[in-house]
Automatic annotation (TrEMBL):
Pfam families assigned: fn3 (PF00041), PHYHIP_C (PF19281)
Protein's organism: Canis lupus familiaris (Dog)
Identification of the protein by name: Phytanoyl-CoA 2-hydroxylase interacting protein like
Its job: May play a role in the development of the central system.
UniProt cross-references to InterPro entries, sorted A to Z: FN3_dom (IPR003961), FN3_sf (IPR036116), Ig-like_fold (IPR013783), PHYHIP/PHYHIPL (IPR042868), PHYIP/PHIPL_C (IPR045545)
PANTHER family (alphabetical): PHYTANOYL-COA HYDROXYLASE-INTERACTING PROTEIN-LIKE, PROTEIN CBG15099
Record-annotated Fibronectin type-III domain positions: 26-135
Superkingdom of origin organism: Eukaryota
Family label: Belongs to the PHYHIP family.
Length: 350
């Protein structure tokens, strides 16, 4: 239902304009298909008796209640989408209502519009639950284009780095044979991001201080830093993907990029779900050969969070204590995206 949709909030028992009449068939065996981040198709079966009297369908679509939902919501007033009776399956679409990766309940009534404008309705069908999908490549490309607008000029860099507590690196040496292991990405960033809670990787930074060209001495993630030469992680044998663009109610924005060795499980995951970037020419992170040497640049005006999808041995770099502060306020762990920011949101939910 994308055009001419009415929204009707009514309490059936109190509204004399809606009368119940058993002759109208009750929808059953409801099927949900073709689910995207902001649309789905719905179909159902119904008895042929009085089928020709049906002029409209009422669809009651609600976010699934959870423990944290508003306890004061009036449960007796459903939000109904009113649609003209069209051949099934019918597409329900609309970024004003549907959000990505969100659980919904849906129930259906058949209705017959009377001469006076009121409706005769069937009983409600059974309630079906479903979950909307993640952002598609099309939606991520829209985010990518928004991120390009504010990425700024490119600065040279030479190392990727990862800050953690001393205990983390001790644990890696003792229990993982000196190799940092990929872990599942948390739920920070865009709610519809296909990498949240699914992609396994290791987070790295590459930002540099404008005046020194070196990594900053402060970090929100721990006082010990692993540094590795850029070419060890990012080279012609890796692919680069755009993962997300978001902010956390702040003036600065984050871009998540994924580096995956060609043909690796991480590469196969990203190839299906994320826009691939040209490693030599993009607005965020580049690796290009100059005079026989690989030269690296990163965008100045966004904070890059780089996910590498394979294990990384500590022997490939160095671990040392930083001299700066641990700025916990800058941590993005499970950070929620600002849904009102016009810079980093697209029009298909949040």
């Amino acid at each position: 239902i994308c055009c001419g949709t009415e929204y009707v909030a009514r309490n059936k028992s109190q509204d004399s304009g809606i009368a119940e009449m058993e002759e109208l068939p009750v929808p059953h065996n409801i099927k949900i298909s073709n689910i995207t981040c902001d649309s789905f198709k719905i179909s159902w079966e119904m008895d042929s008796k009085s089928k020709d009297r049906i002029t409209h369908y009422f669809i009651d679509l609600n976010k699934k209640e959870n423990k944290n939902s508003n306890k004061f919501k009036h449960k007796d007033v459903p939000t109904k989408l009113v649609a003209k009776a069209v051949p099934l399956p019918m597409t329900v679409r609309g970024h004003w209502f549907l959000s990505p990766r969100t659980e919904y309940t849906v129930a259906v009534q058949t209705a017959s519009k009377q001469v006076d404008g009121d409706y005769v309705v069937s009983e409600w069908s059974e309630i079906i639950e479903f979950c909307t999908a993640d952002y598609s490549k099309v939606h991520l490309t829209q985010l990518l284009e928004k991120a390009e607008v504010i990425s700024g000029r490119m600065l040279k860099f030479s190392v990727f780095y990862r800050n953690q507590h001393k205990e983390y690196f001790d644990y890696i040496r003792e229990h993982h044979g000196n190799a940092m292991q990929p872990s599942v990405k948390d739920n920070s960033g865009s709610h519809g991001s296909p990498i949240s809670g699914k992609l396994e990787g290791i987070f790295f930074s590459c930002s540099t201080e404008f005046n020194t060209g070196k990594p900053p001495q402060d970090s929100p993630y721990g006082r010990y830093r692993f540094e590795i030469a850029a070419e060890k992680l990012f080279n012609p044998n890796t692919n680069l993907y755009f993962g997300d663009f978001y902010c956390m109610y702040t003036a600065y924005h984050y871009v998540i990029l994924v580096i995956a060795p060609v043909g690796s499980p991480g590469d196969e995951f990203c190839k299906l779900r994320l826009p691939q970037l040209n490693s030599k020419d993009n607005k965020f992170l580049t690796c290009a050969e100059e005079d026989g040497v690989l030269v690296y640049h990163h965008a100045q005006d966004v904070i890059l969070e780089v996910i590498y999808t394979d294990p990384v041995d500590l022997s490939l770099g160095t671990v040392a204590e930083i001299t700066g502060h641990q700025l916990m306020s800058l941590s993005t762990a499970n950070a929620k995206k600002d849904p009102s920011c016009k810079t980093c949101n697209i029009s298909v939910g949040r």
